[in-house]
Protein backbone atom coordinates (compact mmCIF):
# COMPACT_ATOMS: atom_id res chain seq x y z
CA UNK A 1 0.00 0.00 0.00
CA UNK A 2 2.76 2.47 0.93
CA UNK A 3 4.73 1.51 -2.19
CA UNK A 4 1.73 2.38 -4.37
CA UNK A 5 1.33 5.72 -2.60
CA UNK A 6 5.02 6.57 -3.08
CA UNK A 7 4.86 5.48 -6.73
CA UNK A 8 1.75 7.62 -7.28
CA UNK A 9 3.49 10.63 -5.74
CA UNK A 10 6.74 10.13 -7.69
CA UNK A 11 5.16 9.42 -11.09
CA UNK A 12 4.50 13.11 -11.93
CA UNK A 13 8.06 14.06 -10.93
CA UNK A 14 9.55 11.29 -13.08
CA UNK A 15 7.36 12.35 -16.02
CA UNK A 16 8.38 15.99 -15.54
CA UNK A 17 12.06 15.04 -15.48
CA UNK A 18 11.67 12.99 -18.66
CA UNK A 19 10.00 15.94 -20.39
CA UNK A 20 12.69 18.34 -19.16
CA UNK A 21 15.68 16.31 -20.36
CA UNK A 22 15.63 17.62 -23.97
CA UNK A 23 15.65 21.20 -22.66
CA UNK A 24 18.52 20.43 -20.30
CA UNK A 25 20.50 18.83 -23.14
CA UNK A 26 19.97 21.91 -25.33
CA UNK A 27 21.24 24.16 -22.56
CA UNK A 28 24.30 21.98 -22.08
CA UNK A 29 25.12 22.24 -25.79
CA UNK A 30 26.37 25.81 -25.31
CA UNK A 31 23.48 27.78 -26.78
CA UNK A 32 22.93 29.58 -23.50
CA UNK A 33 23.67 33.29 -23.29
CA UNK A 34 26.56 34.54 -21.16
CA UNK A 35 25.45 35.32 -17.61
CA UNK A 36 26.82 38.75 -16.69
CA UNK A 37 25.39 38.98 -13.14
CA UNK A 38 22.34 38.33 -10.94
CA UNK A 39 20.80 40.42 -8.17
CA UNK A 40 18.30 39.15 -5.59
CA UNK A 41 14.94 40.90 -5.55
CA UNK A 42 12.88 38.77 -3.12
CA UNK A 43 14.38 37.10 -0.06
CA UNK A 44 13.22 33.55 0.68
CA UNK A 45 14.31 32.01 3.97
CA UNK A 46 14.41 28.30 3.08
CA UNK A 47 14.78 28.31 -0.70
CA UNK A 48 16.62 30.31 -3.40
CA UNK A 49 15.71 33.99 -3.78
CA UNK A 50 13.92 35.54 -6.76
CA UNK A 51 16.47 37.35 -8.92
CA UNK A 52 17.01 39.61 -11.88
CA UNK A 53 19.59 38.15 -14.26
CA UNK A 54 21.46 40.05 -16.97
CA UNK A 55 22.77 38.07 -19.95
CA UNK A 56 24.82 38.90 -23.04
CA UNK A 57 24.62 37.46 -26.55
CA UNK A 58 26.24 38.16 -29.89
CA UNK A 59 23.98 38.35 -32.92
CA UNK A 60 24.71 35.10 -34.77
CA UNK A 61 24.07 36.63 -38.23
CA UNK A 62 25.45 40.14 -37.75
CA UNK A 63 29.08 40.36 -36.68
CA UNK A 64 29.81 43.40 -34.52
CA UNK A 65 26.51 43.56 -32.59
CA UNK A 66 26.03 42.46 -28.98
CA UNK A 67 22.83 42.52 -26.96
CA UNK A 68 22.30 42.45 -23.21
CA UNK A 69 18.96 41.58 -21.69
CA UNK A 70 17.61 41.35 -18.17
CA UNK A 71 14.92 38.87 -17.16
CA UNK A 72 13.38 37.97 -13.80
CA UNK A 73 14.11 34.49 -12.47
CA UNK A 74 11.69 32.95 -9.99
CA UNK A 75 13.23 31.50 -6.88
CA UNK A 76 11.76 29.01 -4.49
CA UNK A 77 11.97 25.30 -5.11
CA UNK A 78 9.61 25.43 -8.09
CA UNK A 79 11.81 28.06 -9.77
CA UNK A 80 14.99 26.17 -8.98
CA UNK A 81 13.75 23.00 -10.63
CA UNK A 82 12.16 24.77 -13.60
CA UNK A 83 8.51 24.33 -12.68
CA UNK A 84 7.64 27.97 -11.93
CA UNK A 85 6.38 30.08 -14.78
CA UNK A 86 8.80 32.95 -15.22
CA UNK A 87 7.52 36.53 -15.46
CA UNK A 88 7.37 38.25 -18.84
CA UNK A 89 9.07 41.49 -17.74
CA UNK A 90 12.15 41.98 -19.93
CA UNK A 91 14.58 44.71 -20.95
CA UNK A 92 17.05 44.87 -23.84
CA UNK A 93 20.03 46.94 -24.98
CA UNK A 94 21.98 46.23 -28.18
CA UNK A 95 25.11 48.04 -29.37
CA UNK A 96 27.65 48.04 -32.16
CA UNK A 97 30.89 46.67 -30.67
CA UNK A 98 32.98 46.24 -33.85
CA UNK A 99 32.61 46.81 -37.59
CA UNK A 100 29.25 45.44 -38.69
CA UNK A 101 29.39 42.62 -41.22
CA UNK A 102 26.39 40.56 -42.22
CA UNK A 103 27.06 36.82 -42.30
CA UNK A 104 23.89 35.77 -44.09
CA UNK A 105 20.64 37.11 -45.49
CA UNK A 106 17.61 37.08 -43.23
CA UNK A 107 14.05 38.32 -43.03
CA UNK A 108 12.37 41.03 -41.00
CA UNK A 109 11.62 39.68 -37.53
CA UNK A 110 13.95 36.67 -37.73
CA UNK A 111 14.82 35.14 -34.36
CA UNK A 112 18.25 36.00 -32.98
CA UNK A 113 17.80 34.19 -29.66
CA UNK A 114 15.07 32.02 -28.12
CA UNK A 115 14.93 30.26 -24.76
CA UNK A 116 12.26 28.48 -22.70
CA UNK A 117 11.06 30.44 -19.68
CA UNK A 118 8.80 27.87 -18.08
CA UNK A 119 8.27 24.18 -18.03
CA UNK A 120 5.25 24.48 -20.31
CA UNK A 121 5.22 26.43 -23.56
CA UNK A 122 6.61 29.87 -22.66
CA UNK A 123 9.64 31.36 -24.42
CA UNK A 124 11.57 34.61 -24.42
CA UNK A 125 12.74 35.64 -27.87
CA UNK A 126 14.91 38.34 -29.42
CA UNK A 127 14.09 39.18 -33.03
CA UNK A 128 15.85 41.48 -35.50
CA UNK A 129 14.67 43.79 -38.25
CA UNK A 130 15.99 46.55 -40.45
CA UNK A 131 14.83 50.17 -40.60
CA UNK A 132 16.01 50.69 -44.20
CA UNK A 133 15.29 54.43 -44.29
CA UNK A 134 17.70 55.06 -41.39
CA UNK A 135 20.09 52.08 -41.92
CA UNK A 136 19.40 50.93 -38.37
CA UNK A 137 19.11 47.42 -36.97
CA UNK A 138 16.09 47.06 -34.69
CA UNK A 139 15.98 44.39 -31.97
CA UNK A 140 12.92 43.46 -29.92
CA UNK A 141 12.66 41.10 -26.94
CA UNK A 142 9.35 39.62 -25.85
CA UNK A 143 7.90 36.51 -24.30
CA UNK A 144 5.28 34.33 -25.88
CA UNK A 145 3.13 31.45 -24.81
CA UNK A 146 1.41 28.77 -26.86
CA UNK A 147 -2.06 30.03 -25.96
CA UNK A 148 -1.68 33.49 -24.47
CA UNK A 149 1.34 35.69 -25.24
CA UNK A 150 2.43 38.78 -23.38
CA UNK A 151 2.51 42.36 -24.67
CA UNK A 152 5.46 43.15 -22.39
CA UNK A 153 8.52 43.83 -24.52
CA UNK A 154 11.56 46.02 -25.02
CA UNK A 155 13.17 47.43 -28.15
CA UNK A 156 16.74 48.52 -28.89
CA UNK A 157 18.27 50.00 -32.05
CA UNK A 158 21.78 49.82 -33.48
CA UNK A 159 22.64 52.46 -36.09
CA UNK A 160 25.20 51.04 -38.53
CA UNK A 161 28.14 53.42 -38.16
CA UNK A 162 31.70 53.58 -39.55
CA UNK A 163 34.21 51.74 -37.39
CA UNK A 164 37.98 52.27 -37.49
CA UNK A 165 40.14 53.04 -40.53
CA UNK A 166 38.14 50.78 -42.86
CA UNK A 167 34.92 52.75 -42.69
CA UNK A 168 32.90 50.65 -45.12
CA UNK A 169 29.27 50.86 -44.08
CA UNK A 170 26.94 48.04 -45.08
CA UNK A 171 23.26 48.69 -45.72
CA UNK A 172 20.97 46.50 -43.64
CA UNK A 173 18.35 46.63 -46.41
CA UNK A 174 20.68 44.61 -48.65
CA UNK A 175 20.77 41.76 -46.09
CA UNK A 176 17.43 41.86 -44.26
CA UNK A 177 14.24 41.74 -46.32
Descriptive report:
The chain is α+β, with helices and mostly antiparallel strands and 177 residues long. The protein has 2 domains: 1-31; 33-174, no CATH class. The chain is 18% helix and 43% strand. The protein is built from 2 helices and 8 strands; from the N terminus they run αβββαβββββ. The strands form 2 sheets. It has a 4-stranded antiparallel β-sheet, with no helix packed on it. Strand 5 (110-116) and strand 6 (122-131) form a beta hairpin. It is elongated, with a radius of gyration of 20 Å. 15% of the residues are buried. Residues 9-30 have low confidence and may be disordered. InterPro entries: Uncharacterised_CreA (IPR010292). This is CreA family protein. It comes from Phreatobacter stygius. Keywords: Signal.
Would you spell out the secondary-structure blueprint of this structure?
Layout: H1 2-28, E1 34-42, E2 50-58, E3 62-73, H2 76-80, E4 91-102, E5 110-116, E6 122-131, E7 136-145, E8 153-159
Signal peptide: 1-28
Organism: Phreatobacter stygius
Protein name: CreA family protein
Amino acid sequence: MIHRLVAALLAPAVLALALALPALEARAAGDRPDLIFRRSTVFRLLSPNDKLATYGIDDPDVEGVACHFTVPEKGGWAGTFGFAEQLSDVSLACRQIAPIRFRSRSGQGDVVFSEGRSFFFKRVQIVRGCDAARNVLVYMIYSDKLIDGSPQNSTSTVPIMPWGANAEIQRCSEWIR
